[in-house]
Design goal:
Residues 1-115 form the FAM20 C-terminal domain. Pfam families: Fam20C. One of its GO terms (molecular function) is metal ion binding. With 134 residues, the chain is mostly helical. The protein has five helices and four strands, in the order ββαβααααβ. The strands form two sheets. A two-stranded antiparallel ribbon has the order 1-2. Strand 1 (7-10) and strand 2 (18-21) form a beta hairpin. Helix 2 (50-59) crosses helix 4 (85-109) and helix 3 (66-74) packs antiparallel against helix 4.
Length: 134
């Protein structure tokens, strides 16, 4: 979301104003334009959590396609349809761009350096381990 770094101050009540973060509906952008510059952190750092990657890969599978999941979820919204069909299909296309960027990182640096394993618990130091007797 390219507009998330903007904010406004609500000052209708004078000095007792407050910060107001706005989403000006640009989060999904134009369905026909993929803003690839927002992938820069991923492409430059080349690191992604294993759980995130697994979820993205799942949402790229035909039976769990991101557009289908969003379409179903948004049907519950009182303002449905929230997104147009071209915007929903753009989600699938953009997901492929993300996965392509991850694949490029893995091809360049190897999976062990790119995919951070967040699925295992760090081992406690030996002094903190509970001693079990049998």
């Amino acid at each position: 979301n390219m507009d998330r770094h903007h904010y406004e101050m609500f000052t209708k009540f004078g000095d007792d104003g407050f910060l107001l973060h706005l989403d000006n509906a640009r989060g999904f952008g134009r369905h026909s334009h993929d803003e690839t510059s927002i992938l820069a952190p991923l492409s430059q750092c080349c690191i992604i959590k294993r759980t995130t990657l697994l979820r993205l890969q799942l949402l790229a599978e035909p039976e769990y396609r991101l557009s289908d999941m969003m379409r179903e979820s948004l049907l519950q919204d009182r303002l449905a349809p929230v997104l147009t069909e071209p915007h929903l299909l753009a989600l699938d296309r953009r997901l492929q761009l993300i996965l392509k960027a991850v694949r490029k990182c893995i091809d360049t640096y190897g999976e062990a350096k790119v995919v951070a394993n967040d699925t295992t618990q760090p081992e406690a130091p030996a002094s903190d381990r509970v001693k079990l007797t049998t």
